[in-house]
Amino acid sequence: MSKNLKQIWANCLEVIRDNVPLQAYKTWFEPIKPVRLKNNVLTIQVPSQFFYEWLEENYVTLLKKIIRKEIGPDARLEYSIVMENNGAKSSNPYTVKMPTTNKKAIKNPSVSAPLDINVNPIKNPFIIPGLRKINIDSNLNPNYSFDNFIEGDCNRLARSAGYAVAEKPGGTAFNPLLIYGSVGFGKTHLSHAIGISIKNRFPGKTVLYVSSEKFTQQYIEAVKTNNINDFVHFYQMVDVLIVDDIQFLSGKEKTQEAFFHIFNHLHQLGKQIILTSDKAPIELQGMEQRLLSRFKWGLSADLQAPDLKTRIAILNQKMYADGIELPKEVVEYLAYSISTNIRELEGALISLIAQSSLNKKSITLDLAKQMIDKFVKNTAREVSIEYIQKVVCDYFDLPIELMKSKTRKREVVQARQIAMYFSKKMTKSSLANIGKHCGGKDHATVLHACRTVNNLSETDKKFKTYLDDLDKKLSIQ
Ligand code: ADP
Ligand code: MG
Fold it and tell me: Is 162 near ligand 1, meaning CB less than 6 Å away?
């Protein structure tokens, strides 16, 4: 190495060290080796494709400035990517020439390291080591398709984004597609549905679903057996990568780093990445900033708590698929009572069916109530305003729309007041919220309703029986 080159690079490093955080300096600049300086072109050697992409993306302005200052206004930078495999230098270094002024030229995917699996077989972490053939099983569950993913207000955006991705994997702005939502809201189902649909449309594409737990286990195994390169390369070969529950990677720095390499590589090649998380990207703690910033490149679409209509539709579909019929009131009761988790909703349905066949009882509303109460006791169940309204309306034989309307008809007013009273008693809703649901009233009206009901129950015997009946119907026991 000529003295001149060594000295120039040393000068560059000195300026860089003053301009970037120490950690970044160590990660991104210390490993660089200056290799040549010829005709004002400085060639530096970097250890991977992704390393060079990272430099270009984050430090190109700084590098440009420094190099011009050191070498002169015509100075240019050239990268030489040399992958070091198990300590031995690859015999075929990929040299990427690029004028630092023309960023477009860099985006040529042909500069990426070829992954010729015949020349250099890569271990598939999903199969038993030793098997030569790389046969990627997608790990997709055929039951989780778009066909049985019920559409509702709660999932419309995520579902249609998923659909768009399935039609054109890697070809939409939704890359990555990050689906987030609470437990049991359908993240796993939707991500499988996208994968299945891509497989159906493009049988030649390699789709791979993996949970973050599995990914982490495989990574740890790869570290143990000194196969990290294979691990990373394996994932870099797929066309569509689905990683479920990425919140699980929180705090796992090394695994995140491996994922980061994979992510960059796939994204660079226009491969589709689909991620799910139980938190919005902004709430993902313990996740590296550089990963988080990548998640924001595409679209984050949330799944919300399923609304009543969707819950009933999901139950009906499930029953249809299993060839079961239940009385409408039982289905409604289930859907009304379990509002926060579709998995629990399905679980309750299954238990109910199991109960009735074991005990040879037909499924009545009473049986459903007993069962649900046992089933959801531990999940801090709360009777909903909607449910109270329904029970009260059924009791007085009124259409529920009337209760929600502004009508001041006497019998409706009374039923509405009773619904308000029970809503206050049995839910954690605010007075304002109760009012909103019951004919768009304000909190003072709800308070007044509660007082009126209390007064009447003390003075009017008949009214008191209504209340007691309703209380029984509504209460859990
Ligand atoms: P998550 O991954 O968000 O915890 P899952 O995808 O495992 O949730 O969904 C839980 C259950 O609810 C699954 O059995 C799934 O099939 C069902 N499910 C969720 N959303 C829907 C939907 N929109 N239509 C039909 N079934 C759904
Ligand atoms: Mg899931």
Answer: no
Sign of the dihedral defined by the CA atoms of residues 353, 358, 362, 365, in that order: negative
Is the per-residue pLDDT at 230 higher than 50?
yes
- H and E: helices and strands count for the chain: 19, 11
The first and second tokens of residue 149, run together, are 């993913």
Contacts of 414 (CB under 8 A, 6+ apart): none
What is the band of 277 on the pLDDT scale with cuts at 50, 70, 90? very high
What's the gap in Å between 192 CA and the centre of ligand 2? 10
CB of residue 209 inside a 6 A radius of ligand 1: no
- For residues 115 and 122, the answer to whether their CB atoms sit within 8 Å is yes
Assess whether the C-beta atom of 189 lies below 6 angstroms from ligand 1: yes
331 Cα: distance to centroid of ligand 1 (angstroms): 18
Domains assigned to the chain: 3-98 (3.30.300.180), 146-302 (3.40.50.300), 308-379 (1.10.8.60), 385-475 (1.10.1750.10)
Is the Cβ atom of 150 under 6 angstroms away from ligand 1?
yes
Answer whether residue 261 shows pLDDT above 90. yes
Question: Tens digit of pLDDT for each residue in 95-122?
Answer: 343 333 333 333 333 333 333 333 344 5
Q: Ligand 2 centre and the CA of 380: distance in Å?
A: 21
pLDDT for 125 beyond 70: no
Name the more confident of 406 and 177.
177
Q: How far is the CA of 170 from the centre of ligand 2 (A)?
A: 23
